[in-house]
Amino acid sequence: MNSLFKKSILACAVTMTSSAFVMAGDIEEVAVTGKSTSYANNAVSEEMVNTQSAMTSVMAVIDNLPGVIVSEGDNFGADDWSTQIVIRGFSVDLDQQQIGTTIDGIANGNSNYGGGAKANRYIDTENMATAMVSQGTADIASRSNEALGGTINFTTIDPSQEQKVVVSVTSADYGGHKNYVRLETGEIFENTYAWISASSRESSDWMQNYAQNRGDHMAAKLVRETSGDKLTAYISYDDIHEDNYQRIYGLEQFAMNPEWDMLTDTWTGIPHVDQVNRRAWSTLRENLFAYIDYDFNIGDVELSANLYYHDNSGRGDWIPPYLVDVIDDGAGAHSELMPGVTHLGTPETANRIYFVNADGTSATPIAGCETAIRFPWFYNPGAQYDPACYDAGVTPVMSYRTTNYWKERLGFNGDFTWSTELSNGADNTLRGGLWIEDYNRKETRSWQKVVDALSGYEFNHVPYWIQYDREYPVKTTMLYLEDSLEMGNVTARLGVKKFAVELQRKDNFANTNLTVQSDSDALVNAGVVVRLSDDLEMFAGYADNFAAIKDTVLERDASALDNIKPETAKNIDVGLRYTGERLNVNATYYKINFSDRLTFIAPGSEASGQINYTIGTDGSYVNTGGVDSKGFELSATAMLNEQWAVYASYTSNDSVYASNTFVGDVDIKGNTVVGSAGDMAVLSLDWSNEKYSAGLSSKWIDKRAFNFANSAMAPAYTVTDAYAVVHVGDMGPVKEINARFSVNNLFSQHYLGTIVNNAGWLGAPRTVAMNITASF
Fold first, then answer.
1. What is the Cα Rg of the chain in Å?
2. Could you give the CA distance from residue 461 to residue 448 in angstroms, rounded to a whole number?
3. Is the distance from CB of 439 to CB of 474 less than 8 angstroms?
4. pLDDT value at residue 14
């Protein structure tokens, strides 16, 4: 089906939706998907949540909103390594952090893999109230150091005034299972309510059923509300172990087998083959997050203040097929084989140890031996990797390499809003605030010896080599001030925002420090809303968005820090928003100029793309020009009658690399941004009554650029999700039971999900889940 035909289908769908509104009979209400602001914004609906299972991460629920692509390694979101969010050509993935994320309005502390945390680390799926995507200009008060392409705010549920216990059990394909319980306390003190929850989940990979993924989450929230004052406190703890999916390199590999990423599920005792054993490609993380917020009034001024704390720790695992010969032992046995001896920093020798003799010295391959090994990199790795090229009695050795992360954040947010009526009858609102955050991230890389490379990946927990040890303190201060004036049917606002960010790098081995200042200019944020009728309004907004230099840039010794600039983006939104009793329509045209885009330039890989495990802090970040994006987003929701609802969205996006955009020596000006889709559309049909509800939703994504050169394009695809829910009311001690059956990728479509330059992750096949939720 060609692109034009699919566009026509969506146009017809929106037209049919509008016609159905005219013909509809008695209708109660339609959920509003965008609030009245001067910028584009969309909130998820209950139906979007229902298409996902309780096993799914909270990020998946925003995937059907216009302009948004969420890709995860499986339908449980059980792999941070493969996760990507794309909005209007901006991306959050392994190397890019261009979209802001907040939790109840509080900064998440970056979304990167190495030391960051995405929304699913803070909020359990059952504890999410809603998620709001503010594309492009976003709100001036948004707290984020990476909100170039807008902000996603995930909010938690408030406590119920009714005392009850909520129990949820989910069973799914690929060993998926989750148990969840939440205690709603009811009123524990005067006007004070709380809940506390706990969950445990586990699953495996969809390719071989070999991964051992598990996660535990605990959270609690308290709200005390009196006349004019509100106190809110929240705390969550998340502990996960994820075995990763691996990217595939090239569309030929995708065509050859779209159901296998070439990680293995069998231990062979040959290190060169076992380096891609899935259980040794792992992500381990613990996150503790807490805040206390107080909203109150002093006269006509509304005030809000909160204090938050975040602690993050974990590691990322790989399993190199050799030991690094870090200590020069001369002709003697290698000290790397002996537990308890740890070398710090630069190795004394650049040699590698592949096989050892009985006396602990390196074994030498038989002269002239030709290895038959080709897996996993499909080239001749050399005789040194092949046990058949050694004399009898040698033993293979290999490493378990961990990159270890620690991070602490302490922050404060303060806001005020002062509303007054002017002498001419206009309403004026002045608001402002600040955000202060101090954090310190530590990172080390450790190499541990695998105990017995013939039998498995278990390793000595005392490393034989710690490659580097660094700290990255960062201080952030953000100030904003905005004035809004409402005169009749027109509301106009003008604001300014300023960031001051100081980054440091402390090398605990070399004892060398580095400080970089990453301050913004004065950032303008302005907009206007014109109410054309009770149901229809026009809006326009402009914002200078800013992303401070990340501490990951300071990791790379080769980055020319004197020449690196923070990334900036100029965003324009113009649109119409119709909100009726039975029909909602949002239409937005946007134009974005993204400047000083930071790109990671990797050092040379080993032969034929084999992983360079000793890469350390090599490579560099450089500003590579910018990106120009333009397009429009259209979404419509309508109730056909009291039971039937239709939702449709269509996005046309043109994101290209702008002038002076170089990758190496090649100018890619005018090429489409990697991973961005030119067109995408969603069509959903939902039905409900007092006892039952069901829905079907399809999302189509057009071809996407697979590399900077645009010489390959990832194929277009359509994924369909479905759900059915049975609601059972009061049954004595059981106040309510809901049974939900959900299917993701109903037709098991083969597709590529996350895409980065010359690589991508395979999309997950059909995944079925069953959930029972009961309230007592």
1. 27
2. 6
3. yes
4. 35
Number of alpha carbons in the 13 Å side-chain half-sphere of residue 182: 25
- The alpha carbon dihedral of 106, 112, 114, 117 has a sign of positive
* Helix H or strand E encompassing 21: helix 3-23
Cα within 13 Å of Cα(135), Cβ side: 37
Residue 599 CA to residue 601 CA, distance in Å, equals: 6
Distances (CA, A) of 160 to 43, 164, 293: 22, 9, 18
CA 123 to each of CA 100, 119, 197, 322: distance values in angstroms, whole numbers, following the listed order: 16, 6, 11, 40
Asked if residues 766 and 775 have their Cβ atoms less than 8 Å apart, the reply is: no
Residue 454 falls in which region: left (phi positive, over 0), alpha (psi -120 to 50) or beta: alpha
CA 88 to chain centre: 15
Q: Quick one: 218 exposed, middle or buried, by C-beta within 10 A (0-12, 13-18, 19+)?
A: middle
pLDDT per residue as tens digits for the range 83-133? 999 999 899 998 788 899 999 999 998 888 888 899 999 999 999 999 999
Q: What is the pTM of this model?
A: 0.92
Predicted pLDDT of residue 762 = 98
| The two three-digit tokens of residue 179, written as one number | 């148990």
Burial class of residue 554, CB neighbours in 10 A (0-12, 13-18, 19+): buried
What tokens appear for 78 in the block? 């059980």
Task: Give the contacts of 1 (CB within 8 A, at least 6 positions apart).
Answer: none
Rounded Cα distance between 698 and 681, Å, is: 8
Distance between CA 357 and CA 337 in Å, rounded? Answer: 12
Give the integer Cα–Cα distance in Å for 651 and 636: 12
Length of the chain: 776
Tokens of 225: 């509300």
Shortest CA distance to 326 belongs to which of 334, 338, 317, 314? Answer: 334
- Supply the DSSP string of 658-691, one letter for each residue: -TT-EETTEE-TTPBPTT-BSEEEEEEEEEE-SS
- For residues 427-456, one letter each, b for 16 or more C-beta atoms within 10 angstroms of the residue's C-beta and e for the rest, the string is eebbbbbebebebbbbbbbbbbbbeebbee
Which tokens go with 416? 């005020």
Cα four-point dihedral sign 455, 459, 464, 470: positive
Q: What letter would DSSP give residue 432?
A: E
What mean pLDDT is predicted for residues 450-463?
97
Assign 3-class secondary structure to 303-361: EEEEEEEEEEEEEEEECCCCEECCCCCCCCCCHHHCCCCCEECCCCCCCEECEECCCCC
The tens digit of pLDDT for each residue in 634-666 reads 999 999 999 999 999 999 999 999 877 777 777
What is the Cα–Cα distance from 197 to 734, expressed in whole angstroms?
19
Quote the CA–CA distance of 437 and 410 in Å, as a whole number: 6
